[in-house]
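Components:
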Amino acid sequence: MNLSTLKPNTSDITSETLEHINGYWRAANYLSVGQIYLRDNPLLKRPLKKEDIKLMRLGHWGTTPGQNFIYVHLNRIIKKYDLDMVYVSGPGHGGPALVGNTYLEGSYTEIYPEITQDENGLKKLFKQFSFPGGIPSHVSPECPGSFHEGGELGYSLAHSFGAVFDNPNLIAACVVGDGEAETGALAASWHSNKFLNPETDGVVLPILHLNGYKIANPSLLARIPHEELIKLMEGYGWKPYVVEGDEPMQMHRDMSFALDNAMADIKKIKNYTTQEDSQVPRWPMIILKSPKGWTGPKFIDGKPVENHFRSHQVPLSDPIDNDEDFKQLEKWLQSYQIGELFDKNGTLKKVYKELAPQGSRRMGMNPNTNGGLLLKDLLLPDVQDFALPVKSHGDNGPGDTRSVGAFLKEVINLNSKQQNFRLFGPDEILSNRLNEVFDATNRQWNAQTDPNDEFLAPQGRAMEILSEHLCEGWLEGYLLTGRHGLFTSYEAFIHIIDSMFNQHAKWLKVTAELPWRRQLASLNILLASHVWRQDHNGFTHQDPGFIDHVVNKKASIIRVYLPPDANCLLLTMKHCLKSKHYVNVMVAGKHPSPQWLPYDQAILHCSKGIGVWDWASNDQEDQTDIVMACAGDVPTLETLAAVSILRKELPELRIRVINIVDLMKLQSETAHPHGLSDSDFDALFTKDKPVIFAFHAYPWLIHRLTYKRTNHHNFHVHGYQEEGTITTPFDMTVLNKLDRYHLVQDVLKHIPRSESKNDYLQEKMKDMLIKHRNYIEEHGVDMPDVKDWKWDI
Amino acid sequence: MNLSTLKPNTSDITSETLEHINGYWRAANYLSVGQIYLRDNPLLKRPLKKEDIKLMRLGHWGTTPGQNFIYVHLNRIIKKYDLDMVYVSGPGHGGPALVGNTYLEGSYTEIYPEITQDENGLKKLFKQFSFPGGIPSHVSPECPGSFHEGGELGYSLAHSFGAVFDNPNLIAACVVGDGEAETGALAASWHSNKFLNPETDGVVLPILHLNGYKIANPSLLARIPHEELIKLMEGYGWKPYVVEGDEPMQMHRDMSFALDNAMADIKKIKNYTTQEDSQVPRWPMIILKSPKGWTGPKFIDGKPVENHFRSHQVPLSDPIDNDEDFKQLEKWLQSYQIGELFDKNGTLKKVYKELAPQGSRRMGMNPNTNGGLLLKDLLLPDVQDFALPVKSHGDNGPGDTRSVGAFLKEVINLNSKQQNFRLFGPDEILSNRLNEVFDATNRQWNAQTDPNDEFLAPQGRAMEILSEHLCEGWLEGYLLTGRHGLFTSYEAFIHIIDSMFNQHAKWLKVTAELPWRRQLASLNILLASHVWRQDHNGFTHQDPGFIDHVVNKKASIIRVYLPPDANCLLLTMKHCLKSKHYVNVMVAGKHPSPQWLPYDQAILHCSKGIGVWDWASNDQEDQTDIVMACAGDVPTLETLAAVSILRKELPELRIRVINIVDLMKLQSETAHPHGLSDSDFDALFTKDKPVIFAFHAYPWLIHRLTYKRTNHHNFHVHGYQEEGTITTPFDMTVLNKLDRYHLVQDVLKHIPRSESKNDYLQEKMKDMLIKHRNYIEEHGVDMPDVKDWKWDI
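Structure:
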């Protein structure tokens, strides 16, 4: 439905409805306990036996009853207002809640028909949970209605915002766990409300679920004065409703009231906007304070368990060998009186079933949670329109990312109707020289503005906040719900989201194995402002190791590109924006730099991903003395400069120049889908000639990727060696021995030539390095002749 | 001084003092502009010439004048109240401010005598800034008084808290930049106040410095309603004072007033506590709203620059080639009227000099900012007292980290007078089974408590919050100011602080190269709850890649240990706690597991870091058929189980078993200080025999470390291959082919034996794998015989 025409009504809830809600909640709670403990006797039709209990009991009870409570209440408002709503479980450890609720509403059986709505299905549902060959204990990809696993904590709210951008009638109900609320990413995420456009985006309804405890500690927000918590949420710009207690019927009433009020607020805000009221809206949120392990055992061995951290995982730890535990478990299971809720076949009774929404209104079947169902391909312009003319190999270009800016501008224009592409960056879109995108769009910003602001507007395709966590989290949420995007960041600081990348890569890996899950658009990351050009910043801003981190994940998911110039970058970018279900990492420069390949040559080179640059080589087949390989823009320049020196000084030396755009070509075909076969690799790199390899990042990565290759022992890799400071661009390569002079020196070490000639050239290189040092320490800038290098085409 | 006896007085500031403060500020601002632009003519004794200007102008002006303003006002209160204060520059890009101020107060010249307090010194000071061979543009290790670089943003407040723990009379004045305030780590850091003990810890005085803009965007907190910002800070538990404006004299007055009031509040809180008032204190903080690029050019080319993001870096970008820029720069420099401030020799006049504190009260000379000066060695117990008795190799142990818990308890007891050791963890100290530490101490917690809480107290050695960022940031601050600590975390989620580790490792690398900087205690990280035992959590909790990340940093700084059992872990832990200026990463298990080495053997093994386990081997020197290598507790178990199978089934096969504790032994001695020589390595691993290597983490790391070794092509490494879910512990090894059966299969592939025997054993291994699969899918637990493995000693 259209959220601006909501008709909230807070007076229509009867005691009977509340009783039904409570019954539904009891059913969900029972299913949760059943999943954790039982492998048989799912309806307790006979007295509980020890054989009914799983030998290994895994899972998290503590958060589960509260999430069951939230779920049934969200069901109520979905039905009442015909809402398009998704459920994001921040405390995703509470898998039993989501599995149980999607079972009760029928989604689970629709997706997994063997889990039938009867006793037999219940038995399977229980047994499979946290069981080898079964399903994980968390709200994992296997769980219908999930697009956020919550195994690692902190990203629920950012994912929720990502989900509702450009989804004006979607509500993401986001349960924030009180443990999670202590994380950095979550603490920053509350501010996302300043980036939401009430008219063109949907709604995030945060439910801060304060159970009071984490694994073994109280949680912070449960232990600050009430008025401080309210101020905190108001300070973050939200309008909080508090629902607090442990008496179920009163809590049902209070929660219903709070949700109806929240709906009224949402309607008001949605209508404000259409009236062009400029006030920053104060969206509603709910603070739900309910006992951890609610309705579970109150005491075990005399120690409090309900409303205590002891209920975090599996409260009765030993029901097979400990009789007291066994008795308490039986009593606990019986306490839900499921005979009233399920019929004798084990099917939920109609009066309860009717509480759940139907079809795709069920949160377990909402298509936004299986984003590939909704994914529309991006309309992409012809790269040729943006290609730089290259008349000589080495023509100066204005900065490779600038061309991408022009390309992305057109991507934004072409998809302005689809509204399914956004750009994310930590205040670095301009710094990374994507300036032209602001000819087509603005940064979306719903906080205060000033007449001198630039490119800020209530609606825009660019999302900027100085938080890599939020950029990544928003983008992930946007992708997971079936849209496209690009994250640009400084190379060094992308490590801030290493762990988020891990979780997303894991999500992609598992969803790719589930037939009912559809492919998503790839997570595209452009790392500009890279290690070699941190002129203003120095050592702290130098770390090219993100790609080391990335290649640890499944080869079927990850792709790494190092385009040497603008035309190759453009082609790579288009390729990545078209691709599905990968994480694509592109590394590129933003500073003026040499351009190597005209458009037609770039196409050929990028389609192969790796290749010999004949125009720079002077070897013949089978008559190569040395291979000079390079990957990355700066290493390519230094390699070509070194080759020029060598060809001038040692014209008889037969050199083969290889450039690598697609890094995974280096790995063997059995290790990565892009990998070259051994014979192709040998044909390129020879079986026995020295390979001097100039690499953008840490040199060991090349060894790691190529260690199985025939000629690997002849690879000599130059890369970043963690040496750097504020200095000139060329000096950065010198400090790390990636510069042309060191490359030439390394070549001389590995070729058998006339000694006198080698000695002479070694000396000359040494002299050049001294000349360089003296020059920069006097002038503070590089010698003019190290900036470019040209070859006729 | 003792902060509880502070005598705040807010009425004593005269107009004359304010004028002097303003003069000092002008001097600092002038020095900042001078550093960015000038290489000559530092006192403007002659008209500015283009040759006076640096060819490359790098740095960040925007934040600088505001920080100069803060610095002189902090100087005032340091003198007035005789404070022990350090300055933490969150917006650390503003290097010119800190360099300039430490120069004005004399610290800079004391540390770098060549930068004299005269015209010649000024010239050098200016030229060296952001100049090849000079100093970085940020508040880097080279800058006196800095222990927080601020190159990457977000950690200033956490570092400040770490600095004042157990430093009851230290005040960390922490300038939080408005860009930084958007980061996740910083957003969570405000809550650190709940962990501060007013009696035994010092004070953090945050100064939220709202310049209004980041690189190219307004900052969020500058664009929310005033009352929202106040609520936010109050919600975080702080008492905010606002200083806002751009008229210098009024701002000086307001800032003085705010700081005097803050001092009064601090005194009050310090005294409350001694009266055992249980109220959670509301510490003061300051919100300083001043224009970005204050006192710089107001407009350039008709566009606003002061109070705009355009002042972020170098506002007049082209003063050499653009005459208008040149004129404006000259005017700008002259506007500070330095003739009034410096005498004709270029020395700051006495009336201004007297505003700065003396000796170690100067923030540039505070010994807390060069923590090694204050570092006292930890008193460490004898490991033997905690060693587990091991009668057979493979005796069952209660969980390796449990022994460390007992050891750490004693570390805490022994150092209870020194109060210079703390334990940090994201609510995982108990989960990681370090339970015994709570016999000696509590978790420090100054928020509300409940009678059912456990191990919470206003003072304690354990710091727990569910934020890896805060744990790491606090610990870094604690170490940087000369104390010791340990961070324990789940292995997978330590990636959350990848980027923080980077920055700390870079800090260690650079400080090690500065003779005046003293060595710090190592940053010790214990990764328990590792990839192989995530029984309750599954795939999202599996990532052993932190050590891949770590080994990218300088070899002189990083150490990685994989102790196979409790006794080795104890010895490793003691070794790490004694060490200086490293990052030590230890990976260990928390679950009951086999113990391999009695104490005396463990000493020998750990002192070598790598060695043959003779008791498990049956080869003779030069008569080895195969090497079975292992690193990590689970791989060690699987290797020994595989060896047992092989020795039973193929008794004639001569096997050598090697265990690695110190991973960096594998690298060559030229690459890492711990590296084995090639001859030692060859003696261990042979030059030509197959090596079946069972490794804790991603297998490629072993290839990366050993690729230069003679026998590398014979290495076959088994490790984590990104396969996992909720399943049994043994099945995790099977899914990743690290289990005994797969290891035996791999051995069979690489040894030339009678084919029939090999085939028989291959089949047997296949059968075992099928038997395993069937067993776990029926019972949900592992077959009983895969848990342990014993050998007589």
